Amino acid sequence: MPEVAGAGAVRILLTGGTGYIGRHVAEACLDCGWEVHLLTRPASILPPALDGRVGRHDHQPTFESLNAVLRAVRPECVAHLASAPAGARDPEQVQQTIETNVTLPTLLLEAMAANGIGRFVNTGTFWQHYRGEAFCPVDLYAAAKQAFQDVVRHYAVNRGLVAITLKLFDTYGPDDPRRKIVTLLVDAARKGGDLGMSGGEQILDLTHVADVGRAFVQAIALALAAPGGHEASYFVSGERMSLKELARIVTAAVGQHFAPRFGALAYREREIMVPIDPGTDRLPGWAPKHRVGDMIATLLPGGPAVA
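Above: the chain sequence. Below: its structure as tokens.
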């Protein structure tokens, strides 16, 4: 449920709503009694949990197509979660990264302005802050995220857009197809094998996907209540621990013999050893409710549902 009172029932349009995090954000919005619409690519598959509960609007990557969807839906707020994956290594992937992370959402903002829709929640990443600096991108993906955040600021300053950017750290949850580190550890521990890993000294900042969904609900409520031209950026920071500590927690929770081989792999180039400190830039009115140690059982096959 939203943690800012008075937002009321609203109509929301989400990009990236068929992805893992986007699906949970859509479900969190539905739980608030909000009307949810998804901006989707024609080839996207709607998650079963959302089937019959949301409006689906296929689009092409053009202003005209986006403008038609916004004119039809007339949302009070747009939340942007669609993203090209990190790790562009060839010209085609570079082009996809820029088109998905910068060009398409900029056209979306222009279509919003053309239709008088002025509330926007954006998704950033802690990878924009290598070595804890105000801005130092880990890779092209992070640079594109920062570039679009600068575009968002333009629309706030010059077009009166209300914009809130949520910068996510590491996320995890049940049935996660992304093969993130928590899932990899749980699967290895469950099967009783080993897993080659880096030295394990890097610090992770872990947030359960249900808490991420609540964070977006909170950000939407804040955007709905803010005056025109308001622009802010907040971190969604959860539970911090080293990779070695996470492995110990997983091993204890699963109860299987598990021997992670720390040091078997080199650290990644530009590995973030200590994530940026959120300081006072945490999302107001929000705090994580789920702790990693309590959630491991929910990641196992047949495990309990998340409360």
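The longest helix spans residues 91-114.
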